[in-house]
Write a structure and sequence with these properties.
Elements lengths: L6 H11 L4 H14 L5 H12 L3 H13 L8 E6 L2 E6 L4 E6 L3
Antiparallel strand pairs: 1-2, 2-3
């Protein structure tokens, strides 16, 4: 490789490796954690992968690690405009706020 793998390359490998390729997923997550140990995504990726494989002790271990490092996961939001009003939704599709739009 002409240059050292960066955050984007490790992220891409991590996502593709979660389809059951545990060794590569763990390796990529490890590199992402080295680059930014407060970034929650590699921990979630590993936890979800372990859960899909019924590796519950590993899931608990990752969750304990995240809690011990006080790493927070923030909810993702979607915004949609309906009739000059903006509605904010979480991934659970609950409306959290309606904000009128001035035009």
């Amino acid at each position: 490789m002409p240059h050292e793998p960066d955050f984007q390359i490790w992220s891409t490998l991590a996502v593709t490796a979660t389809k059951g390729d545990v060794a590569n997923a763990e390796m990529a997550a490890g590199h992402l954690i080295e680059l930014d140990h407060r970034y929650v995504v590699p921990y979630i990726m590993l936890s979800n992968m372990y859960a899909s494989m019924d590796r519950w002790k590993d899931v608990a271990s990752i969750r304990t690690l995240v809690k011990g490092k006080n790493i927070k996961k923030f909810a993702g939001y979607s915004w949609v405009e309906i009739g000059n009003e903006v509605h904010k939704f979480t991934t659970l599709f609950r409306c959290l706020a309606s904000i009128p739009i001035d035009k």
